[in-house]
Write a structure and sequence with these properties.
Strand order of the largest sheet: 2-3-5-6
Number of helices: 9
Radius of gyration: 37 Å
Order of helices and strands: HEHHEEHHEHHEEHH
Shape: elongated
Strand content: 15-25%
Number of strands: 6
Helix content: 55-70%
Structural class: alpha+beta
Length: 386
């Protein structure tokens, strides 16, 4: 029986695929992973593009205070029969004209200022969204990075459990063989999990294949530099979610101001230069005009009222979202604060548990040698230490 069990142990061990691919897998540090992931994550790239778009909207709103709207137009018209040409004062089958027109809005019920405020708020919101996307990218990258480290250590632990199981004496070879078979299955599953984790990390950093994580220090986690209340206050002041909600509320308020400006008159200053001739560049006759226009809105089939109602609803929703976001951020920060402190305490307790398990295994090994315990107790001690 001892000989058969030994052969079966060799057969079972032979079915475990060696993890030789780990030597050829590129290794990346956490800092390198974060840097590469921030350039590849689609959500972050999109958020960065939104910042550029919002910056142009604000730039346009600022320029509207100083620059007029300018249009240039030219046309070359040919007729089937001669037609009076206003430029030459004669009959001609061809008329060429050139127009240069410009206009500047002097007053629009405060809409210019409201649009600038809205553009500033939207830019701030886009910048906060970019920070939020960067944080989410970093969070996902760190999660995948630590998952590789976790799966790698678990693979080593499972392999170590199989080696420990082989330390039992051969009189319990059948029980040992059963334990080896279980460890074999666990090791197969664990190596598969490690392979998937490496592939996911490679995806994060833009690699076509698996990427391994460089080992990090195992120093105990340090206490947080902020109290719970200080952390909550910091989050309410600088959290991207709060900043975005606050900026959205300001943008919605500015939209209400702009919509109310539709009830006030609009004053525009305009000018135009027009030239006519039979060929380019037309200069036979030139006309110019300068004037101002006052537009008083009276009734537009309730379109202003509909627009105002919509922006008021959007503002109320934005205000409610801001209040809810602030309460949610406070709750999330306190939860994260408590989870971190719990994790620190759990780390210390786990280190103590390792010492206890190691001593328990030593005692079980001594008892097994003198025949005062069973292999089940010894294997349980081995698994406990693992």
């Amino acid at each position: 029986m001892i000989g058969v069990a030994a052969l079966l142990q060799i057969a079972v061990a032979a079915t475990v695929p060696a993890d030789g691919q780990a030597d050829s897998i590129p290794i990346i540090t956490l800092e390198e992973a974060l840097q590469r992931a921030s350039q590849l994550d689609p959500d972050y790239v999109s958020a960065l593009g939104q910042v550029g778009d919002a910056a142009w909207v604000r730039r346009s709103a600022r320029l509207a205070f100083f620059l007029p709207s300018i249009q240039v137009q030219t046309s070359d018209t040919r007729f089937s029969s001669e037609f009076f040409n206003i430029g030459t004062g004669e009959l001609a089958s061809r008329i060429v004209d050139f127009r240069l027109a410009g206009s500047y809005t002097l007053f629009r019920g405060g809409s210019k200022l409201a649009e600038l405020r809205q553009a500033n708020a939207e830019l701030e919101s886009a910048e906060a969204d970019e920070v939020e996307a960067r944080f989410q990218t970093a969070l996902g990258t760190e999660s995948d990075y630590y998952d590789v480290l976790l799966q790698r250590e678990l693979t080593r632990a499972v392999a170590r459990a199989r080696v420990l199981s082989g330390a039992a004496v051969q009189t319990d070879s059948l029980q040992l063989l059963l334990e080896l078979t279980r460890a074999q299955v666990d090791l197969l599953r664990q190596r598969a999990a490690l392979k998937i984790a490496r592939l996911q990390l490679g995806r994060r950093v833009g690699a076509d294949g698996p990427v391994d994580a460089a080992s990090i220090d195992t120093l105990p986690p340090r206490p947080l530099p902020l109290t719970e209340q200080e952390a909550a206050a910091e989050a309410l002041a600088r959290s991207p979610r709060v900043v975005t909600a606050r900026a959205d509320e300001r943008a919605a308020t500015a939209s209400v101001t702009a919509a109310r400006g539709g009830y006030l008159p609009q004053v525009d200053l305009f000018g135009q230069l027009t030239s006519f001739d039979e060929g380019f560049f037309p200069n036979a006759t030139t006309r110019s005009l300068v004037g101002f226009r006052v537009t008083v809105p009276i009734w537009n089939n309730a379109q202003r009222e509909v627009q105002l109602s919509r922006v008021l609803t959007s503002r109320n929703v934005a205000q409610a979202a801001l209040d809810d976001t602030q309460r949610g951020v406070r709750r999330d920060v306190i939860e994260a604060y408590e989870n971190y402190n719990t994790a620190r305490a759990s780390t210390a307790l786990a280190a103590r548990a390792v010492l206890v398990a190691r001593e328990n295994l030593r005692v079980q090994q001594e008892r097994y040698r003198v025949g005062s315990t069973t292999i089940i107790d010894l294997i349980a001690a081995q698994v406990g230490l693992t």
